[in-house]
Amino acid sequence: MLEFAIVGFGNRGSTFAKLLKNEKRARLVAVAEVDADNRKLAQTQFGVKAERCFSSADEFFEKGKICDAVILCTQDAQHREMAIRAMRLGYELLLEKPAATTLEDCIAIRDTANGLGRKVMLAHGLRYAPFFYTIKKLISEGKLGEVVTVNQTENIAFWHFALSYVRGPWRNMAASTPTILAKCCHDLDLIAWFMNKKCKSVSSFGGLQYFRPECAPEGSAKYCVDCNAETRKSCLYNAYEVYTEAQVQRGTGGTRKLIGKDVKGLIESRAHEIGRCVYHGDNDAVDHQVVNLLYEGGATAHLTMTAFSQRCYRFVKVHGTKGEVYGDAGKGILHYTPFGGERQEIDVNNAIAVDDAAFLGHGGGDYFLLMDFIGYLLGEEKTVTRTTIDESIESHIIGFKAEESRLNGGAMLTIER
Q: Final residue of a domain: which of 275, 298, 315?
């Protein structure tokens, strides 16, 4: 049986722990996590021994190689150091996306993995979600002919963007990651997967248009608790209304980390991120961006990222020479039309017959991703969904080039590898 350690036992780390809990081919044997409550959770809910619950990544790594593989779920800026350290100790690695916060760090992780012969996968779980896997299956079976264009939109949702990219840990791009990678590296990976060709060039436009002091309503303050009562009442981003108990219990948009916390107390403390005014913060994460991609052979793709939507969902349309397919991933219905034929509806909502929310993360992709990683370590044949470190870094290169283009007024940039 394979033995796993999880470094970073927050939202993502605990999700993988849930998926490992009943797995017969692997088990969780160690956790490294700075939060004492989360370490206790690893012991009480997942049976990790107290002596294998480490209070830091350093403490874990100092023990040497104590299991087979590491699932690395720490903050993006920590990925390069921890990933390389894990690989040098002999660990195989499942790495949360994005791989790292700079292109140089991403390349260093890739080259270290290849140089040491380590098995490394990035957590691009959407490849495994039935919605996106079905699109890839239609392409692979030739039902769309040759792919000519892909249009994809990442609708982040106004409340999700406010929590994670205005108030939260990804609000400052220099301290975290360019937003197009932090939020859309899944999308860039999916487009590359659908195209199955090398991207030749990229251009991009976007910026921070709305979450700025000049857009603040009259009567606003740096913290919601100090905001004028009437102003707060009419504000879409009023923390008292956005982070209700019902919203937190759903765990959507990054609110899972608030479960069990005194949310009102955090808002009124003036010390927690969720109580900050979205207009008076230190954020610079862009709230909208478009990316244009040119592939070998002339095929094109377009990605739109926007904070301004009610729901958090992806919409995709793939145009081929023999057919087209489109759909809203949040609704789980694909509309496929073979040219000259009738439109068909493909419902993927019942593709996963489980009720446990842990198995439904990323549209069901998290579970199948982890199962494929286990299969990878056990020497099973490569699946069509499996993303190697080389393939994953390819989409990261595109993302970093897109950000470079955006900062240079949308300049067309060649993709260099």
A: 275
